Backbone:
């Protein structure tokens, strides 16, 4: 029986691709390019094309990661984490200071930000840890997991990069939470956390405190720290139910929304597509997250489950933090809107994550058989 | 098997825990997205109107559209103040990190003179940092292009096309026309007090002096508005709506530019003032204060060097002598004194004295000298005017008493502002017993009155007052109210509205007394009179009176020798006149500072003005002013 060439090629490309997840991703990404075009002023197609190139690269990464068996990924978890930790320590010792923060490491040929590696390194490492301790988790295992999480989070918070450290903390916490950390500990940690808030507040840098204060009352400094939030809420609010139409947002097109094609792209989207657009975007995100949770629920190993669960919840966290910040209910943290904001790095790591999800989804039969 | 079973149970338990936790997380996600949905609904449905208004306020800027300032033309339509359009390069200091170095860099692109820099610095000191201030005006097309290429290097710098005020006549009539200047803090207060803040949005200049100042309301016009869409950087993207401004009204002033020029030139190098009025209407045909200044210097902020030159000049070019110079009227007061004596029945036309060359109050040794050492012989009122006999008027004043004199002169406007329609005039001084008591807490002495009789002592008048009083005399005792505005041309309807004469009710004065004075004043310009030379060969009659005002007092027995004293201590020359004497169309007063004698220095100026006004004749060869004059005064 002869298989037609085209269908063999399709088989080759799509063998490790999860259909429903891919469909939701494709729709969201198409929406993203459309908004990036508008957010770059509408007159030039350069940015949209650039985002197209980023997409091509990110899809390659997705496809590649989808083909990496979870077992191999698991074996890579510890080396990646160890390397990341080593780099973070180097940053603390010899890092480059830019804008008052020590976040970058000059490797001679290029400069890297090791905290980016930890975004994926920490959840994988923790999933690996709990996978090894599969037979009956003890308190000590959780304590060690806490150390695995605390080291990179602490180092990144010291740089200082509070936003990234909180996001990495979240991704690691999701793993520990899904692994079954007892409610007693969760509750007592929450109480202790709340109790130590005043102390944490005193530990914050001035600009960090300013961001929180700005959230509470943006009009306090309408041309300074509050400007971003004020202008983005004006953009979203003035969009109304149906929006002002693609390329017609005055706040967006006349440059009132700062960083309109990156972190604040939701303001452009919300202004031009209105509440209806926002609901569509929330629905797409929910579909992606729902599919991710399903893959996690049906994964066959502890590592796969925890990794899939953490990747999905981290994706949710990014989306929620960004939308919360742009609509003015969370402080300003430098997080892009996943799959919509212009930029290659974030897109690459998100689609790589979804590649891992697809690998978990399509490799489980092999493992279980 | 048991171990495996245990492990399987553990695995099963672990999976159950995981799935429960996953479900919980899913629930949390739904709640979180629910919060976002609520927030979006709040912003985009409930608060939509509020944010819509804010977004519109962001993008729509209401820009004032400044109206064209009205023109000022003379009675024959000759332009005295006009507008021209030009490019300026302006700096908003608050948007520039280092203004000094930025200007340094700019100087490499377009010419910036030292004067531009000084002027800019002065403007900067006088204004607030966020105002846009001109560093260069009147840029050429080439300079505009050159700057445009380099524009990115100069944030906070901007080329603007603006209307500028220009005074094509330069110094001519500068004291009457005045000028406009940049709005300062005092102007802002006045604008606020008049509730005109909205109308002055976008306007940088305001009339400061003269016609420009007094008729600011007519000249300014109504500011229009334009709704412009702007981006976050404040750059205009497109115009959304526009309401046109209404230009200011054009003003026709009473001045006759040619007459004004002739009058100014007639002064040659002397300082002084001249006011020429049509007595029938009160229209001021010439208002001279010499030296003048170039009002164009003030339009965009005067640079310190020019300012110091004008301000510190001993000639005081900024002082409007016609309105603000207060001088003793000298013998030009005599016709009014004579009229007073006739009216109050202190003198008859026939009454005569024998003039020994001096006057003494009874019982006092002091001698009030006549300018003619040996006296004029037998002198009646007519002769006293024609030869300007001092002794006659010493006695006349003493008999009248200061308060009668005060009452009579007050009717002719002495000691009071004339009410001319530009600001700044001073009142002069028409003294009385009450005044001296109030001013010096001293009683009035009989000797004070003697000097008043010849226009000296406490008596002070402005040239404008003297001209108005002369015009009233020429107008058969009908008080003349001087004005500079002749007509207003409405910019919208193009209709011209004439300003009516404001001349008052006739004074109670006997026509035969006026006739006596007029005859005497005509004889002043005839052989035997003090101004004979000035009227020689004129085909019309001039009624006039010469005068001299002392600048320094002289000791008893000292003789005045013009050639031996410093120029600035020389006497001021005065002259009042009207012509044609039987039906006057022009009355004037002339003051020549340190000019010596009225008949020799001031009178020839009057002749040139009359010749042009009555005959249309321009002077061919200008005679040298001053010099010896047989009929001295």
Residues:
């Amino acid at each position: 029986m002869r298989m037609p060439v085209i269908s063999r090629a399709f088989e080759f490309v799509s063998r490790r691709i999860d259909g429903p997840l891919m469909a939701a991703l494709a729709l969201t990404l198409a929406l993203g390019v459309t908004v990036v075009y508008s957010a770059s002023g509408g007159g030039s197609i350069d940015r949209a094309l650039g985002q197209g190139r980023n997409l091509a690269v990110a899809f390659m990464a997705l496809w590649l990661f989808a083909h990496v068996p979870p077992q191999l990924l698991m074996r890579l978890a510890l080396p990646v984490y160890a390397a990341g930790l080593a780099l973070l320590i180097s940053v603390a010792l010899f890092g480059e200071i830019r804008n008052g923060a020590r976040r970058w490491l000059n490797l001679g040929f290029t400069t890297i930000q090791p905290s980016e590696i930890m975004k994926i390194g920490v959840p994988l490492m923790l999933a690996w840890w709990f996978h090894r301790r599969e037979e009956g988790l003890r308190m000590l295992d959780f304590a060690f997991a806490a150390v695995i999480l605390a080291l990179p989070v602490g180092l990144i918070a010291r740089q200082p990069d509070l936003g990234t450290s909180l996001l990495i903390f979240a991704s690691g916490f999701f793993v520990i939470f899904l692994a079954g950390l007892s409610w007693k500990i969760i509750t007592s940690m929450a109480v202790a956390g709340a109790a130590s808030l005043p102390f944490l507040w005193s530990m914050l840098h001035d600009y960090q405190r300013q961001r929180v204060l700005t959230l509470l009352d943006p009009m306090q400094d309408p041309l300074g720290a509050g400007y971003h939030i004020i202008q983005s809420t004006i953009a979203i609010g003035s969009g109304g139910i149906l929006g002002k139409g693609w390329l017609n947002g005055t706040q967006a097109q006349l440059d009132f929304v700062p960083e309109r094609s990156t972190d604040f792209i939701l303001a452009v989207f919300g202004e031009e597509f209105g509440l209806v657009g926002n609901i569509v975007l929330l629905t797409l995100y929910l579909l992606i997250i729902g599919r991710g949770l399903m893959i996690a629920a049906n994964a066959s190993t502890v590592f796969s489950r925890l990794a899939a669960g953490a990747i999905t919840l981290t994706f949710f966290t990014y989306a929620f933090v960004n939308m919360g910040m742009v609509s003015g209910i969370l402080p300003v943290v430098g997080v892009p809107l996943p799959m919509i904001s212009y930029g290659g790095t974030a897109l690459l790591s998100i689609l790589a994550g979804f590649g891992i999800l697809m690998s978990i989804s399509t490799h489980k039969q092999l493992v279980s058989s | 098997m048991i171990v495996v079973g245990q492990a399987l149970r553990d695995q099963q338990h672990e999976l159950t825990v995981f799935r429960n936790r996953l479900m919980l997380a899913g629930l949390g996600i739904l709640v979180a997205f629910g919060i976002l949905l609520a927030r979006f609904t709040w912003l985009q449905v409930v608060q939509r109107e509020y944010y819509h208004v804010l977004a519109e306020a962001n993008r729509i800027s209401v820009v004032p559209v400044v109206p064209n300032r009205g023109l000022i033309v003379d009675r024959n339509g000759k332009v005295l103040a006009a507008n021209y359009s030009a490019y300026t390069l302006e700096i908003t200091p608050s948007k520039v990190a280092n203004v000094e170095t930025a200007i340094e860099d700019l100087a490499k692109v377009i010419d910036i003179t030292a004067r531009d820099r000084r002027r800019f610095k002065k403007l900067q000191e006088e204004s607030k940092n966020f105002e846009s201030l001109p560093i260069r005006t009147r840029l050429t097309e080439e300079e505009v292009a050159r700057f445009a290429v380099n524009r990115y290097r100069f944030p906070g710098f901007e080329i603007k096309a603006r209307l500028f005020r220009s005074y094509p006549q330069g110094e001519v009539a500068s004291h009457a026309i005045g000028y406009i200047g940049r709005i300062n803090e005092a102007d802002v207060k006045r604008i606020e007090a008049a509730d005109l803040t909205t109308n002055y949005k976008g306007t940088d200049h305001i009339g400061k002096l003269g016609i420009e100042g007094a008729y600011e309301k007519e000249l300014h016009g109504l500011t229009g508005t334009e709704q412009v869409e702007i981006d976050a950087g404040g750059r205009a993207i497109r115009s959304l709506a526009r309401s046109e401004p209404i230009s200011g009204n054009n003003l026709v002033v009473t001045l006759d530019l040619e007459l004004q020029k002739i009058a100014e030139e007639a002064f040659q190098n002397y300082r002084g003032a001249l006011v020429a009025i049509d007595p029938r209407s009160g229209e001021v045909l010439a208002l001279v204060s010499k030296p003048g200044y170039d009002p164009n210097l003030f339009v965009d902020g005067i640079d310190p060097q020019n300012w110091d030159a004008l301000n510190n000049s001993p000639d005081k070019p900024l002082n409007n002598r016609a309105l603000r110079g207060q001088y003793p009227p000298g013998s030009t007061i005599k016709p009014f004194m004579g009229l007073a004596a006739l009216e109050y029945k202190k003198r008859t036309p026939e009454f005569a004295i024998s003039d020994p060359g001096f006057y003494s109050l009874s019982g006092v040794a002091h001698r009030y000298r006549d300018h003619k050492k040996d006296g004029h012989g037998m002198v009646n009122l007519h002769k006293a005017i024609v030869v300007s006999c001092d002794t006659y008027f010493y006695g006349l004043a003493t008999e009248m008493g200061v308060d009668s004199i005060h009452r009579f002169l007050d009717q002719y406007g002495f000691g009071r502002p004339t009410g001319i329609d530009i600001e700044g005039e001073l009142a002069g001084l028409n003294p009385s017993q009450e005044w001296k008591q109030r001013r010096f807490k001293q009683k009035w002495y009989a000797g004070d009155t003697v000097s008043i009789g010849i226009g000296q002592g406490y008596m002070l008048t402005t040239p404008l007052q003297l001209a108005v009083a002369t015009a009233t005399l020429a107008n058969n005792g009908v008080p003349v109210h001087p004005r500079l505005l002749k007509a207003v041309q409405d910019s919208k309807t193009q209709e011209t509205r004439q300003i009516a004469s404001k001349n008052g009710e006739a004074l109670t004065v006997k026509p035969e007394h006026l006739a006596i004075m007029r005859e005497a004043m005509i004889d002043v310009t005839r052989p035997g009179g003090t101004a004979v030379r000035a009227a020689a060969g004129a085909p019309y009659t001039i009624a006039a009176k010469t005068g001299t005002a002392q600048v320094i007092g002289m000791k008893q027995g000292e003789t005045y020798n013009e050639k031996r004293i410093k120029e600035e201590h020389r006497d001021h020359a005065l002259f009042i006149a009207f012509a044609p004497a039987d039906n006057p169309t022009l009355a004037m007063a002339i003051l020549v500072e340190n000019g010596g004698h009225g008949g020799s220095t001031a009178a020839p100026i009057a002749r040139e003005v009359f010749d042009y006004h009555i005959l249309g004749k321009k002077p061919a060869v200008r005679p040298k002013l001053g010099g010896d004059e047989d009929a001295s005064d």
Notes: Chain A touches chain B through 49 residues (CB under 8 Å). Chain A has one domain: 19-368.
